[in-house]
């Protein structure tokens, strides 16, 4: 490296500057400092500039620092100390029982509760999410070559049970006693792990045994901004309720397919998300309204030191709960203007991108993002999940992907295409939640009957003369009116009962449905 | 209490002790020297740069001293540069490098951080070739090496 400053006194500064200074001439520690300040993409590009810079920055130390700065040290410790981690069976294959779908799967209860009280080789500090994400994709080559010490052989890694039975409160305390807090059982400083949930000092000695290849590999996995279905935590994933299928419709080759489930709970966790504004996008195929109507799509932010398992209990940063198909479709890139005229299964021509309304704002430091799709009421089926991703609105190269910027405009313009429903009746063929089935029943509409188009009118006319007493609608018999949309917004100014008397069909909001054009006026 | 700092080109600078001690190097020197009034020589820092460094330390004289070890505390970390610091750093590239080097030599961590973040901001959004051009870096890779390293780091492009 060029000697930039001469240390002999008295010499003028001009003599030291015969060539224009280059960044590569700066001392290594300064280059490292600059490298650590760079975001991921720029760091990768910076490495490509010259040999000096590459050899200085593509080092174990720098990757170690970058990793712990972005993702925290806890994840690395969990990975390196497998004996201390909780040996939960994978959430992807819960035991199959026919009655289970009404309740969360046994694993998901572990997942949702904060303090695991497994006595022996437990760890409240493990995150099965991240464990699973990483394990699914560990490059076999690096797994063989990286010298992961087994806990048995390394005397430092004495399991310290007392450490992990401490309740993990997620208050961010002063970091200065994070190191000394917790179990004092182990005399070695490396085995003393600060309790989960507390802010702690980064001490690279604790995780020095991770090789550079391992660090880079983990960094690659954890920094993904798109998560495929197989890296999500899906309750009741197995064979009967949800299953993973291979498919060419996904660039990952796999989809999560919902056969039928009551307790629908899908979680995707991102960690180390850089500060910025994000949109959440789910790529899904929907063939029935049940999985999406009244389903909550939510996003929660959590700090680096917090346990991802408990993140779901925090207040929402974003939430979207469509109460109708139309509301759902508004947030997707599908042409949605023909909601009531097309058979539902043609509504989404294959996969669609659902973009949650609102922006996810990550401020200050790297944060974790906890995303969830949940609906714990009633049976539903007909959903395929490809992936979920975070689109960074602050990044000019990425922000084009947001529906708010791009496809949205296209969608609105697509409202004039001709309807081709092949004369089919518009009735969802799968059982759906909401008051529609109840109205159908009361009005004598049989959704499963296939009717010849000409006969359709006759039967409707016949129906018209059936006296429908408004009070009959109140007499619900054994079935209670679902309360989700029981107060229809009478935007049209017409009361639902009048509409019913006319024999008009009602959608689940109690509003008169538009009649197909081919219908005779009644 | 004032101390006298002497730059490499023999210019004297009188500063308050408190301001001078923002530099850990100077702080340690003063502790070693004790109550002496003798000026402190800084052979690695020229007058122009020292002026800027002192200006920074004066402005930030009341900032809390940072904990020496890095913490995970999200409250303490911010990726944004203060407005005053941003204006302060609007100098030509040579001076920028020299300030960074001086901050490194004098061990003034906040100034070093700001300087490096400024350089990082210049790098943002640039391709490797553009980075080389901006900072006068010579590409000493062979084409094969360059292609290999590019491939190795391709994954970082959309992270």
Automatic annotation (TrEMBL), chain A:
Pfam families: F-box-like, PP2. Residues 24-68 form the F-box domain. Residues 80-127, 140-198, 401-440, 459-522 are annotated as: Disordered. Residues 82-112, 428-440 have a biased composition (Polar residues). Residues 113-125, 140-160 have a biased composition (Low complexity). This is F-box domain-containing protein. It comes from Linnemannia schmuckeri.
TrEMBL record, chain B:
Residues 2-62 form the SKP1 component POZ domain. It holds the Pfam family Skp1_POZ. Keywords: Ubl conjugation pathway. It comes from the Eukaryota. GO terms for biological process: ubiquitin-dependent protein catabolic process. Transmembrane segments: none annotated. Pathway: Protein modification; protein ubiquitination. Residues 109-156 form the SKP1 component dimerisation domain. Gene3D superfamilies: Potassium Channel Kv1.1, Chain A. Belongs to the SKP1 family. Essential component of the SCF (SKP1-CUL1-F-box protein) E3 ubiquitin ligase complexes, which mediate the ubiquitination and subsequent proteasomal degradation of target proteins. PANTHER family: SKP1 (PTHR11165). Component of the SCF (SKP1-CUL1-F-box protein) E3 ubiquitin ligase complexes. This is E3 ubiquitin ligase complex SCF subunit.
């Amino acid at each position: 490296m060029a000697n930039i400053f001469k240390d002999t006194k008295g010499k003028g500064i001009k003599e030291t500057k015969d060539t224009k200074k280059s960044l590569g001439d700066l001392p290594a520690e300064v280059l490292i400092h600059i490298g650590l300040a760079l975001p991921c993409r720029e760091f990768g590009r910076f490495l490509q500039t010259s040999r000096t810079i590459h050899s200085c920055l593509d080092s174990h130390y720098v990757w170690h620092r970058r990793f712990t700065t972005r993702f925290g040290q806890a994840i690395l410790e969990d990975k390196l100390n497998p004996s201390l981690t909780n040996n939960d069976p994978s959430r992807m294959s819960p035991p199959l029982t026919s009655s289970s779908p009404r309740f969360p799967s046994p694993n998901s209860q572990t997942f949702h509760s904060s303090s695991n009280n497994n006595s022996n080789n437990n760890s409240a500090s493990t995150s099965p999410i991240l464990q699973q994400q990483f394990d699914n994709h560990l490059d076999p080559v690096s797994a063989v070559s990286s010298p992961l010490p087994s806990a048995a052989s390394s005397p430092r890694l004495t399991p310290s049970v007392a450490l992990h039975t401490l309740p993990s409160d997620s208050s961010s305390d002063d970091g200065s006693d994070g190191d000394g807090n917790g179990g004092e059982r182990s005399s070695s400083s490396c085995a003393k792990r600060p309790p989960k949930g507390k802010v702690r000092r980064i001490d690279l000695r604790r995780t020095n045994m991770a090789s550079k290849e391992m660090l880079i590999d983990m960094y690659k996995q954890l920094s993904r901004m798109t998560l495929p279905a197989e890296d999500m935590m899906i309750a009741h994933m197995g064979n009967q309720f949800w299953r993973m299928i291979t498919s060419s419709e996904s660039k990952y080759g796999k989809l999560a397919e919902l056969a039928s489930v009551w307790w629908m709970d899908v979680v995707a966790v991102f960690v180390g998300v850089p500060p910025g504004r994000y949109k959440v996008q789910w790529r899904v195929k929907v063939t029935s309204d049940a999985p999406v109507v009244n389903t909550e799509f939510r996003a929660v932010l959590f700090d680096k030191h917090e346990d991802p398992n408990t993140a779901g209990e925090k207040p929402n940063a974003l939430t979207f709960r469509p109460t109708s198909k139309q509301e759902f479709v508004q947030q997707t890139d599908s042409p949605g203007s023909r909601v009531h005229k097309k058979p539902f299964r043609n509504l989404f021509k294959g996969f669609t991108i659902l973009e949650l309304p609102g922006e996810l704002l990550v401020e200050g430091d790297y944060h974790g993002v906890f995303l969830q799709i949940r609906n714990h009421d009633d049976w539903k089926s007909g959903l395929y999940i490809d992936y979920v991703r975070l689109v960074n609105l602050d990044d000019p190269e990425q922000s084009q992907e947001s529906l708010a910027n791009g496809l949205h405009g296209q969608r609105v313009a697509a409202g004039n295409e001709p309807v081709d429903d092949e004369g089919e009746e518009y009735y969802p063929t799968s059982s759906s939640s909401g008051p529609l089935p109840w109205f159908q029943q009361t009005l004598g509409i049989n959704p499963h009957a296939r009717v010849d188009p000409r006969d359709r009118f006759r039967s409707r006319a016949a129906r018209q003369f059936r006296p429908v007493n408004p009070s009959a609608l109140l007499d619900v018999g054994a079935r209670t009116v679902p309360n989700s949309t029981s107060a229809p917004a009478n935007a049209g100014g017409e009361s639902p009962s009048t509409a019913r008397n006319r024999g008009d069909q009602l959608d689940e909001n109690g509003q008169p449905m538009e009649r197909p054009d081919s219908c005779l006026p009644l | 209490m004032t101390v006298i700092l002497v730059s490499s080109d023999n210019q004297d600078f009188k500063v308050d002790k408190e301001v001078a001690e923002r530099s850990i190097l100077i702080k340690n020197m003063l502790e070693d020297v004790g109550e002496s009034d003798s000026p402190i020589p800084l052979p690695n820092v020229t007058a122009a740069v020292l002026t800027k460094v002192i200006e920074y330390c004066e402005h930030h004289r009341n900032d809390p001293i940072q904990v020496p070890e890095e913490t995970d505390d999200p409250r303490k970390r911010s990726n944004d540069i203060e407005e005053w610091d941003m204006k302060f750093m609007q100098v030509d590239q040579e001076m920028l490098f020299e300030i960074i080097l001086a901050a490194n030599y004098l061990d003034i961590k906040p100034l070093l951080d700001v300087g490096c973040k400024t350089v990082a901001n210049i790098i943002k959004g640039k391709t490797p070739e553009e980075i080389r051009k901006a900072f006068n870096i010579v590409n000493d890779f062979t084409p094969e090496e360059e292609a290999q390293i590019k491939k190795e780091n391709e994954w970082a492009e959309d992270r």
